[in-house]
Amino acid sequence: MSVIYGVLRGKLDRWKREDVAPGSKKSPHLQIRLLGEQGHPWRIPVNVRSEDKTKSLVIFHRADPLLSHPIIDGLGLFPTGLTDLNNKPRTVNNSLDYFRAPLFDWVNGVALPPSGSGPDDDLQDVVSRYLQNLKTLNGELFAFGSHWHDNAPKPGIDKEFGTVNGMHDIHMNQGNAAGDHSDDNGSHNDGGLILKFPDRLVGLFFRFKTQFLPTDDKGNRTATAREIPPGSTPGSSPPSGNPTDPRPDFPPVYIERALVNPVGDDVGKEIVVLGSTIATRVVLSGWSIVDKGNRAEKLNGQLLPAGGSVSVVLSGDGAQLSNKGGTIRLVNPAGDIVHAVSYSQADAVEGSYVRFNT
Q1: Where are the domains of the chain?
Q2: pTM of the model
Q3: CA of 3: how far to CAs of 6, 137, 191, in Å?
Q4: Which H helix or E strand runs over 255?
Q5: pLDDT confidence of 239, banded at 50, 70, 90?
Q6: DSSP, res 346
Q7: Helix, strand, coil % (nearest 5) of the chain?
Q8: Largest Cα–Cα distance of the chain, in whole Å?
Q9: Domain spanning 253-355: CATH 3.40.50.300
Q10: 3-state secondary structure 187-237
């Protein structure tokens, strides 16, 4: 079943663990009860172990605090309860895409077991600790994923929670292999949890080892797609050394910084600085810089020195960098996204460059 995409906003009410014995074939979830419009209850099951044949561990990413992303400015526009985005335009301000609009540093991903014998030694412990803090401080929860409305609720947990509606697929929904949840693939289609505390936002994001990157505009694997282990950075270049090496596999060409909001009129003054991680020069013929609206700035042979950087001045006829937050994607001649970065409205300080982590 394909993802019926939406966003659920409300107050956290309670949650319940699902623990399984080692070797069990069951796929446990952390069950969350959220109160939406007029106190309407919703159930949010968060996968804590993969449903694939190998029952692999879930790869967990956290952004604490969540900064420098256009979704920050979009959260306040969601009403309490469900916002259905299934057949509506999705943007970087109302949806999640781990790859095209990065929310976290890939190198910080960890594979955690679903259950453990001690405190803070499994995925449910870690997420529950954040939930407990959110409830104590009376914060709000935003759940991105696939919503359902079921006239035949699950006998156990739905009876306990008093729920018939819910939001699942709270994880990356792209890069699945053909025939293995591939009907869930899409761009701006990923799930996740954003916790709004009084003093900060926290993002909790989840993916599976069986999901590969990079993906095309439909969320399907490209010909160069490969597994992204914990501690790695996605890119279209082949892995170097041991694929399980925890060192990040940086792309050979990356987005280093950008002048998003130049002094005065922006047209013809916006700049994207590209950097190199390799010891040979790169002629950037056929490469493109793409903005959040999918407008492309073609690069016509700019020379990127070995291990150096080059400033690309945007013409104003192609990619344009919004001062209200956005994304910048670097696309190679084969059409693969080599690197992508995000920035928020607060980052777009007039006359200052935004520096991106890589």
Answers
A1: 5-218, 253-355
A2: 0.89
A3: 9, 32, 10
A4: strand 253-259
A5: very low
A6: G
A7: 10, 40, 50
A8: 63
A9: no
A10: CCCECEEEEECCCCEEEEEEEECCCEEEECCCCCEEEEEEECCCCCCCCCC
